[in-house]
Structures are given as structure tokens and as C-alpha cells.
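Input for the complex:
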Amino acid sequence: MTTTPDPMKPNMAQTTGPDVQVVETDAAVERRSKEAYFTASQGQLIWARFKKQRSAMIAACVLVFLILSGIFAPFISPYNPTIAGKNDEYTNGAPQIPMFCDVNGCSLRPFVHAVERERSMATNFRWVTTINEDERHYIYFFVEGWEYKLFGFIPMDTHLFGAPDGFVHVFGTDDAGKDIFSRTFHAIWTSLQVGTIGVLIAFVLALVIGGISGYYGGWIDSVLQMITDAVRTVPAIPLFMAVAAFMPPELSAEERFFYISLILGLIGWPTLARRVRTHLLTERNQEYVLAAQLCGASSGHVIRRHLLPSFTSYIIVDLVISFPYMVLSETALSFIGLGLKDPVNSLGVMLQNVTSADVLLNYQWYFIPVIFFIALVMAFVFVGDGLRDAADPYSDNNK
Amino acid sequence: MLNFARFVVTRAVLAMITLIIVSLVVFSLMELVPGDCAERYLAFKNTQGSGISAADIENERIRLGLDRPFLERWGKWIVNAFQGEFGDSCILRVDIAQLLGDKFWISLGLCLASLLLAYSIALPVGIIAAASDNAVLNNSLRLFSYLGLAMPNFLLALMIMLFSTVYFGDTLTGLFSAEYRDAPWSVDRVLDLLSNAWLPIFILGWSATAFALQTVRALMSDEIGKLYVTAASARGVHGRKLLWNYPARHALGPIVNSLGFDLNRIFNELPIVALILTLTEAGSLLIEALARSNDQQLAGAIIFLLTASIVTLNFLTDVLLAVLDPRVRKSIVR
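Predicted:
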């Protein structure tokens, strides 16, 4: 039986039997770790360096958590985030924190109190919401609720938690009675989608334009660089605003969503294109490119098979770094009112809701999505930063 | 000297070319708006009760010169734009130069002031942070820098406004007190502007400071590790003298170079801050033109002016760099 020896384990083939304790000398350990270092792929090296950075690892965990909660948003949210899931009885309602004890005693199962809404002579004919301390809504896990499609195709109606005999709003409700908890997680997902589509479009454009510019050099490079620089000097948000303002107002929510992503991509390419060009300019003079060209490889072949793989890791890092800017731009657009609009849940739409003085003074729970927004952007920036340090082969020398 | 003159002329020509490309982008965008100025003029007339016909629109188009080919109109627009003439606004139907007037200069002043604020904080703090080995200081600066990016500045503005409303009973919005809003320029009016402008300047400068801090720190810590610094300290230069005379001078070049992009970033935030603080300047006019009235002439003019000031700043920093660093003068094209 021949297996390739695992460089991380002592070589068992050299021992005589399973009972023999393998004692390695320090030199052997060091040799093995060096061997592992020299035979590791680029990806393994980056991962090894990335793991050493504590802040980046924490950020990566937060990021994975947020992305997963975005993907499983319909499962996590107890209610439909659109107007279909509104709670008429509890508009602008404060967050209901699940509790175990109240004046009537304790229970092992968490519960929230029921709320009642009343409008009468006694309340001066305004709707007044009161908490009924005597009625409990118990919270159960894996309850059945509104129907949704997990990943877009698995029909399901099970939710992580819910109160079968009432409503539970962990983050409170907005002015239409929509559950802010459900809206927040759907908003994260929408913003991630917009960002991903925007980054992908920008990436393809950057790859083509930066690739041509960097590979051919000469006057093509000069002209393309001049155009790239000119586009880069225009302040992006006013430009976004200008393009978004021309969006036909009769678009449906989905069309609007794609239009916004398209705009983000079409305006976000110059920075990426410049990086691609710089990578290419340094790589194309390397000897392995000359060797491939001497062998008669076509330009396309050299770019695809030799140049692109040489800086894939850098490109991935650049994509991660440019991601938060996409999310921020989407937020800015939606915030001004030129981006996504209210029936769609995006982080920008949620942020737009917090700007009124009414919310500031009376309904502070509207700010809960802001925390998620800041966490998402911070996580992306920290991970991007960590990846950049990890992808830099010389960063080891400084540490 | 001749080298220097050649450098300046080349840079000026490059800046002009950039502006012309930008004007093409902006002008094409203005053209893409559904409907043109002629339709908008007459739509207004229609609301006044006089009926209009397709022929009226056509006549109006000819009067405004909208029937000319695209390139001709673009040429005319750009020639006028360089002279500060942007024609009439489509909706408000007043001369744009007059409408913008002071407002644009106020905006530019606000942005430049926040740029100044950003660097007057970032330069000393960044240099000290790069020189010190204090992990707590460095990490907290890093966190602050990222917060500057992630924390939307409108949120900061809202917090400050809420705080001042609740605790001082004073709303910090607008740029002028009521009595100076339409008054002609005077010393009192300038003082009034300054007493109100600190909040937008602070909020615009907030994320700019964070970015500038990161740039300064990264450049300085790159330079500090280099051999000439070690050599200088081996010769007995130390302390502040070592920092300022050796690595700081080398790091200065890229910092000056990045000023243009910092201004760009501040312009990005201008409309949002203007919206929250209800400032009466170019940023809010831009939102007004784009989000509400669809006034392509006005929006185009503002975007062009913003970009022109970035290009001008880039040109000035290039010249400044050439003055500071003889190596830059010699290399005309990067």
C-alpha cells in the first residue's frame, strides 16, 4: 500500500510496528514544517497567514454569520418582511424582549406579554397600546408560519422561532406594523445581492479594460488610462445620483434592484481596472510570459492560462475590499431616495427610515438595523485588510 | 527652470484633457434624461392654462438649439462651461451661474475647510502612531479609521443634532441665521457663516480624517523601516528631528498626491450631509435638481464644477510636488 506521506505527520513507513513510539528530533520537525511551507499552495499560505491575525479572524466569523443569516433570512424571520406580514395591532411597537418571569410567576419557556390597542374617549381618541401583563404569548422553536422558498426553490413554512398564539417582535415594529427583526435580515440579504452583482459587473469591466491596458501597454495603455483617470475624478455619489435619477419611475421593484446594481457596477470599475493593469504590467515582463510567447502561445492564451492565475489571489482581495464601497453606495443612493424604495428591504431603505425627528425621539428601535449595517461594513473592511496582508508574500518578513 | 515650465505646461494640458473627457461623460448623461429642456419649458406653460402642440415643442427646440447635432451642442456647452456659463436651468428658468453663484463657493469652502481639518489632525497623530510601538494606540486608531468608513456620516449628524436639540434646545441646521440669510456679504455675515459652518465641516471632515490618518500612518510606517532612517539614527539623529527630517519628508510626496482623491471623497458626502443639515448650498441644489425636479442642466453644471475643482486641485498638488521634489520635475510622464 503506497500513500503519499502527509508532511504534517511523522512518516510511519519508517517505523517497524504500530506500537513503536515515534520520537522525532527537532531538526526533523523543522525540516517537515519547512517542507510543508515550500510545498503549500498559494491558497494554503494565505490561509495560514490570515489565521494569525486575530482581528481579521473575528471579522471573518462575524461576516460568515451575517452572510448565513442573510441566506437563511426567511427561516430566521418569524414574519413576512413585506406589508403582508404586518401586525395591525402593534404599529411603531417597542421591541418585545422574551422573558422568563413576570408578576404571575416564572416559566421555563420564554414568553412575551400580549398587547392591546384601544381608542376611546379615555385615550382622547388616539390609538394607545397597552401591555396586558396577564396574557402571555409563549415562544416556541421551529414553528410553522408564512410560506417561503428556501434558497429560492425549497418550499417551506417552518421558522426558527415564533409565538403561535400571538405576535413576537424582538426588534419592535415600524409605522406599518412590519416586524423590524424580519426586515433587517432580509435587508442584509438584499444589500449583499446588490453588492455582489455590482462587484461582478465592475469586475468583468475592470478585467477587460485593465487587461487590455496592461497587456498591450504603449499608446493603448495611455489612452485607456486617461479615460479611466477621468472617470475616477468625477465624484462617485453625485454621478450615481445622476444616473439613478434617469431611472424610469414606472420600474417594478425587481427591475429597480437590477438597475441599481448595474449602475454600481458601471461606475465602480475604474479603481479595480487600475489594479488589474498594475498587476499585469509587472507580470507581463516576467520570464515565464516570454517563454510562453516564444512557444507560440496566443495573447488570449497567455492572459488566461499564465497571467490571470498569477494574480488571482490579489484580484479576490481587491474584490473583497471594494465590496463595502458597493454596499455603502447603495445605502447612500437609497438614503437620498434615488435607490431602492420602501417595499424592498435593503439596508439603505432601513437607514432612510431613521432620519425623522419622530424616530429619533420616540422610536429608537428603528436604529437596530444601523448596528447590523455598521457590523457588515466593518467586517468586510477588516476581512479585506487581513486578506491583503495575508496575500502579500513579503508581509512575513515584518512580523 | 525650463524643465519646470515644461512640467507645468504638460500637467495643465493633461488636466484640460481630463476635463474635456469628463464634460463628455456629464453631457452624455444629461442627454440620456428622458425628455429635454424644450418639453420641460412647455410642460410648465401647459400648467399655466395655455395649450401646447407638438409644433410648439419643435419651435422651442429650435429656439434653444436642441435640434443641432450632439457634437456641436457638446462643443458649445464645453466652451461656455470653461467661461463659467452654463445656460439657463430647465425648471427654474434662471441663469445657472447666477443661481449657483455664492452657493458653489460656499460648498467648496466647506469641503476645503474639512480637508484642512482632516490633515491638521491626521498628520501629527498619524506620524506619532507610526513611530510608536504602542499596540493599544495603533489598534484603536485602526478601529477609529474603519469606523470613519463604516459609520454613515448622516448618522453622526443626526446624533449631534439630537443631542443639541435635547440639551441646548438649539437646532443646528442651515448655514446662516435668519437675519443674514438673504443679506449681502458683510463681515457680520461671514462671522455668522463661520459660527454655523463648524458642524458640516466637522461631519464632512470626520471620515476624511479617518482616511487621511490611515494614509499617513501606512506611508510613515513604510518609510520608518527603511535603511536611511536607521543610518540617520546611527549617526546620532533622534527624536522629533529624526522623524520630521527623514521619513516625514519622504512620505510627504504621496500624501500631497492623495489630496485630490480626498477632496473627491468629501464631495461624495456633501449631498447627504447637505440633505440632513438642510444646508443651502450646491450639494442640496444637486439633490434638488436630481431627485425632485429632474433639472439636467443644473445637475450637469454642478457635477462638472465639482469635478473641475478636483482636477484643479490635482494640478496644483502636482505643481507643488514638483516644487518640493526635483525628481518629479524631471519625469514629465509618470
